[in-house]
Protein 1
Amino acid sequence: VASNSGTRDLALEVLEQLDQNPSLKTDEAFPDVSQPEIKATLDRLSSRYMIKYETNDTEQVILTEEGTMIAREGSHEYKVWDAVKKQGQIEIKQLPSIVGDLTAKVGQGNAFKARWVKKDGNNLVPVADTVQDIAQQKLAKIQETKTVEDPKELKELQKRKLVSIVKIITYTVNKGPKYAKEIPVEVTDLTADMLASGAWETANFKPYNFNAQGASQNAGALHPLNKVRTEFRNLFFNQGFVEMPTDKFVESGFWNFDALFVPQQHPARDMQDTFFISDPPKADRPREDPSAEKAMNEMEAGARKLYATKEQSTIKPRDYNQYFNDIKAVHQEGKFGSIGYRYDWSEDECLKLVLRTHTTASSTWALHRLAENPRPARYFSIDRVFRNETVDATHLAEFHQIEGVIADFGLTLGGLMRFLEDFYSKLGIENLRFKPAYNPYTEPSMEIFGYHIGLAKWVEIGNSGMFRPEMLEPMGLPKDMRVYGFGLSLERPTMIKYGVNNIRELLGHKVDLNFIENNEAVRLDKN
Ligand code: PHE
């Protein structure tokens, strides 16, 4: 039995009281204990079937401050009469200073009406010799009984702000089937020893309390960006896309720029826009990459399953020397029907290492592998990119791009527009508008604007185009193969989805972990 001296054991007191009386009312038995405290005790005992209890929800009439004063000192009219009686007469002007403002104001009229006092010139004089202060008597009785029989009278008293009604919860407690004067020791765990000794048969097990709240689970939570990423991945998978490997944050200029026909003087290749890596000072020329082989093979196996295309036997060997020289040629003097940019192309510039500025570097790599076995293909990726940009509310130096490429024979720009309309409609974005734009690696290029139904406004939601022959033909892709590309940031739809206005609330050290833990599962507003 847990009862330590000094602290009061309410449970024990309840059990003791029930030993004397079969039924008790908590407001009478424990007038000084708060309702939540007594309820906790009763719940504890009733979960062990030691008691049963019922909740009584009653209303009580209690006196306001003014009502209490009247019950104690008499009504205002009584006080007026009493003062006049004692002094024989009182000048009306003097009354407030004798009985107080409120009493003078309220009590004078009532005392006239009751014919306890009357006017005599400028004075008040008594009429009655003795009076019955009924108002005071009524309130004193209410104070004792906490009820008013007549509802009309109750309304009137409430209106005069003499009484108010309070809800009172009390409990009626009776003995339960397992009643005892003390709480027996309870066993919480079934042990091997108890099984061996047979003690389990007579042990008094503590019953489960199914009303108890479970302990809060310190579980992990997915970041909102990851949730939106999952949605996009499913969107791509459902449309026959295969995920590209994107595990290289560091790329050579070749894969990030040159192979995409981005000229070496392009502003995007400036230190202002791109993070360059100083150590190691330069990359290898493009070559076989054993580390990427496994990921690529898995991807191609997936693609083969989807498109039922030909196996190894038709695969052309890659010739990286040829590829490298063709890229140089297509920039410097032109090739594949292009007149090129006509500048002195620098191998050093091409082999600088950079933090990739777009996932199109990964798409380029995947497309050059497609040239081994050219066939219709749909690839996508969602991963991190880096730009040396001024950080503000909507820009960070690193963010995520969602990118898709579609390769096929006989593709047209109209087909790209149709595809994008379809794709974005699945995100709840309708009525796309296309704006001619410029990318060194696509022609034509289009910025994508969409009317966001949820936000009710036009938002820029992507960039797209058809990859240039200067990029595709050096890879060895057939002349009549066309490739669509499109990209958007992962952050933008995430910020829209979660109503985040400052990107720093989504990424970085200012992120509120509660927001991450508690935000809802994402469902993009699909059609
Ligand atoms: N790389 C482009 C960007 O960073 C997106 C894009 C991808 C555009 C593919 C056209 C084709 O914005």
Note: The domain at 10-61+164-201 is CATH 3.30.1370.240 (Ribosomal Protein S8; Chain: A, domain 1).
Protein 2
Amino acid sequence: SRLLEGRTAVVTGGASGIGLAVAEEFVANGADVVITDLGRAELDAAVAAIGPKCSGIAADVSKLADMEAAYAEVIARHGRLDAVVANAGIGAHAPLHRITEEEFDRTFAVNVKGVLFTVQPALPLLRPGGSIVVIGSTASIRPPAGMSLYGASKAAVRNCVRGWIQDIKGSGVRINVLSPGAVDTESLRSALAMAQGADAVPAAVRTMGEGNPTGRIADPREMGTAAVFLCSDAAGFITGVELFVDGGMAQV
Ligand code: NAD
């Protein structure tokens, strides 16, 4: 059955990777989806791939005015807002001795301030029964080497969410963190290609999978189906949790 029939959802950073897969699963479950991202061309390509229940709006999550304008446009298009997936995020490899102030500011501007500016202007618009999903990472508890800044940003939003469930008490809106481990996206594959060369990518993906209790890394669609669940009435009493959708990686 279609869990999100008649609902309207916003997915930030929806032009690629996990966000695109989330948008596809939402549409498959009956939702109208508006994806936001930085580039018009990338948005247009994603909307064409997802189909007529999806449209795009160019907006930078680190700019509050962009997000306010995006939500106003969502209401103009659909007249309602039921779900928000704060997915846009960045993660650069920067070991301690090479962390720069610029890298610090950029990581927190997108991954923390960007989540705040995705959530804050949505709150007055979300209907009771509405749901917010913030895409975290297993790096929030286990940052891999060289990913301390990224892990810190994901831990920061996880703790924001713990506080926010109390701040939004009585709104009927739930908010949770969905934390992937390694997900087989183009961005993961291109990062591996840059580090180890293009020919080494399939073996590197296999090796990452072997380190996981399930023996593989995730398909992006598996983030989509988990986000559908968290935004559906089936998850009606789940709020404030960090749900690891990581094949058990964070538990071993
Ligand atoms: P991705 O780079 O494919 O997608 C992220 C999208 O966000 C891109 O389309 C990008 O243009 C957009 N974006 C970046 N900065 C933005 C901004 N300021 N405003 C609006 N959009 C912006 O990456 P992905 O792997 O799909 O990652 C999506 C989320 O999942 C991120 O929050 C990431 O930290 C998280 N995550 C990914 C993995 C993984 O293995 N791929 C694992 C754990 C967590």
Note: The chain has a mean pLDDT of 97.
Protein 3
Amino acid sequence: MTFANLGLSPELLLAVAARQYTLPTAVQTEAIPAVLAGQDVMALAQTGSGKTAAFALPLLQRLQQDMEEGSKQRKVKVLVLVPTRELSGQVGQTIETLAEHLPKKLKVAVIYGGASINPQMMHLRGGADVVISTPGRLLDLLDNNALSLQHVSTLVLDEADRLLDLGFADEIKRILEQLPAQRQNLFFSATFSPAVKKLALALLHEPKRIAIADLT
Ligand code: ADP
Ligand code: MG
């Protein structure tokens, strides 16, 4: 399997080549077509298996197709929830570099707690296409009407196991209440536990199941 065979656009293939990804990883091979098709996905795969690009590449492709040319006011269409500030930055950077050659420029907002909220509120003025956030700070911003989740078409839970380990279950629940009921859900975790399973069941609708991890 090659990235080209997975149905990615020439601009994304260029970005993949620039990062020296020669072949898609197993989780990418399985997830990319499903995400492109709009399916929900539940992927269990160990750390380092390439989960970020597995959701970022197909979501970037779909965002390009759906984007209105020259529209200035941006609505959040993809929301990625991550457990930590560090991961928020890493995922944001990966998405930015993979989007580098796309003809329609995307605005990506990286949001996290433990830093002043004002610059983040300023950055969200005029909207964003993709928001990557830790749960607590996202709720603070929602309480401040700094962004709206009414137009989110895809929700990604990245490192769902760590989100739960860090005690974010209630925050996630409150965020879910603000999302449109009709949406795509992508669920990524390195480990599987009863709590992870419960969250996945609550969230996912007939998901494509990808299990590349050892499920011990
Ligand atoms: P995970 O989220 O599963 O822990 P990441 O998405 O962070 O994994 O990717 C781990 C590393 O592998 C990163 O350095 C990333 O750039 C690299 N990587 C991702 N996909 C590929 C690929 N197809 N070929 C080579 N390296 C890749
Ligand atoms: Mg990851």
Note: The beta strands are 41-44, 78-81, 108-111, 130-133, 154-157, 184-189, 208-211.
